[in-house]
Write the structure tokens for this entry.
Amino acid sequence: MKLTKQRLKAIIKEELSRMKEGGLAGRYTAREPLERMSSSTMPVDSYSREELEQALAEIPQLENPKYARGLPAHIPQWIEDVKKRAAEEGIQ
């Protein structure tokens, strides 16, 4: 499939629009470490205390119904794992 210059411009315009609206794409490009943690195969058990605190701090935003429909399918399980690990470590 050949990508035309016109189609590429349209794609870029769509992505910029999403970022300006504060959509999921805009949120994650600014939060690369969280994206790396939540989308990697690295188990939550291997997170450092700092990474765990960072992930825990982001959970309320991820649980916001405004973003729920745009989240990848694995995020609810990731959130549950982070909360469980944080409780085990005594992090609130």
Summary: The CA atoms of residues 34 and 40 lie 10 Å apart. The chain has two domains: 1-30, 32-92.
